[in-house]
Amino acid sequence: WYDDANEKLLARWRKKGKDAALIKGHPLLTNWGAVLQDTFYLLFQHEDLINAYEECYLSPPTTQTLLGKIQEDLFYSHREKNSPLELSALADGSFTISACYTPAREVEALYNYLVKHVDEGSEEGVSPRDIVVMVSDIDAYAPYIRAVFDTAPYSFPYTIADEKIDSSDSAFAALEALLRLHDDNFTAEAVLQLLDFTSIRERFGIQELTLIRKAVSSAAFRFGMEGKNEDDSVYLSCSNALRRLMFGICMSGDEPHSFGDHEFYPVEMVEGSDALPLVRFCHFAEVLMASIKERAKARSVAEWGVYVEGVINNFLFREGEEGKECALLLRQVEKTVGWDGLLEEEVSYEVFTFSFLKTLGNETRQHAYVSKGITFCSLIPMRSIPFKVVALLGMNMGQFPRNEALLGFNLMERERRRGDRHVKANDKQLFLDTLLSAQEKLYISYIGRSSKDNSLIPPSSLVDELLNYLEDRTAEPELVRKTLVVEHPLHSFSKKYN
Q: What does DSSP assign to residue 55?
């Protein structure tokens, strides 16, 4: 079929007055499979170099369902229309399209769909591990996925792959905040903001944030680790505040105490076991200041890598989900330092962190793909392995397939050749691969109406093409979209669900 042409190419030939000798192929194959066509063309240009052919057995798709009939047409590249699809085939549930108002509603509708079909398919052996959900923008949908699936009454095990590791309350974000904190920006608010990260709080067992904020304010910690006697900034430093807090816990009275050549007054706030949160905070602050002081001298990249590993081990919680993130971070540190670690030249801390954080921020959680339960992942090549249930989220107009930015200096764009990378063609191939990888159910979701004015929003052009193809194969085309496309209300508590 890689010699077949789509209707667009045939029309171009006719317009030029040339004999359209090309064979008109399956509309979906020829429109979406251009990347594979180019690959076959380039491969068989050197056919004489291929000295061994081995046929791989492929079981043809079943024709018992609507999804199976679509896949059969693609499998055999049927060029002519087969027998028209019956209305009962459209309503068999193997292929569903959901139109929602917001990404959050997309995820809620997906959850309800999965609960229904896992419950119905339990006798057939459908488990969460047999489900993959591919998302056009995994970073945008990840918070909604966690919000819905973590609080739902029926719990599904799941993993999110390909998500960037710099989300707001992740181990990476905590590590970045720790590494960006130094003596020049060591303020009370910056230190307290570190306790907003779950992994840091749990590592030091800190819970009473309100008490700690009140104590920091009472101890007059404003900025700086040690401060200077010359400008009296020592009295506003973290070290002085910690001494006042610890002396206030250990003893009572209004008498001043001396440390070096300056005096301070203890801050009495709590005593006994109630002082434990303040003791833990003081320990955290001492470890933090000691870590920052270690950055004073230049080191090799490998030595800075060891330093970062020490920060991870000292400040981040190492059990449960946070522990998995820390293990990932340690692997990424080793990978990122990697080749640079061979350099023996010493660099300053500022030079190292500028490069290190930039590189680490581009890493994703690829390790989580097909690890347990439902897999949420991005639409990227080589991910379309067979699953019983395949779902696609974010199939919105203008977002998928992606359009490549036109650059004036891109000479490849002016004279495109077979095999040149093309983002839009790659996305079409991904959609085709995903359609073929669904074994039993295919679920597609998109933003179908505006949440502001309720206006209709068309789906991705690929979804439209698929619906148009089904309309051509149906005796009553006007019923295709009414049967397959489910329009969900704006709110999950709508009476439509009753």
A: P
Residue 155, exposed/middle/buried by CB under 10 A (0-12, 13-18, 19+)? exposed
Instruction: Give the helix/strand (H/E) hosting 447.
Output: strand 438-447
**What backbone phi and psi angles, to 5 degrees, belong to 276?**
-55, -45
* Per-position DSSP letters for 235-269, written without gaps between them: GGSHHHHHHHHHHHHH--SS--EEETTEEE-----
Which candidate, 81, 80, 63, places its Cα nearest to that of 72?
63
Query: All domains of the chain, ordered by start, with CATH?
Result: 7-62 (no CATH), 87-162+368-497 (3.40.50.300), 171-365 (1.10.486.10)
As a whole number of angstroms, the distance between CA 4 and CA 10 comes to 10
What is the torsional sign of CA 325, 331, 334, 336?
negative
Contact 395, 179 (CB under 8 A): no
Q: Give the helix/strand (H/E) hosting 94.
A: none
Q: At CA 16, angle to CA 15 and CA 22, rounded to 5?
A: 85
Please state the φ and ψ torsions of residue 280, each to the nearest 5 degrees: -65, -40
The residues, ordered by sequence, that sit 6+ positions from 303 with a Cβ below 8 Å of its Cβ are none
Identify the CA nearest to 457 among candidates 157, 124, 103, 101.
101
- Average pLDDT per 10 consecutive residues for the chain, totaling 498 residues: 61 59 72 85 71 72 87 80 75 93 96 87 74 92 92 89 70 89 92 92 90 91 84 85 86 69 75 83 95 92 90 82 73 74 80 85 56 84 83 94 79 78 89 92 96 94 94 88 94 85
12: helix, strand or coil: helix
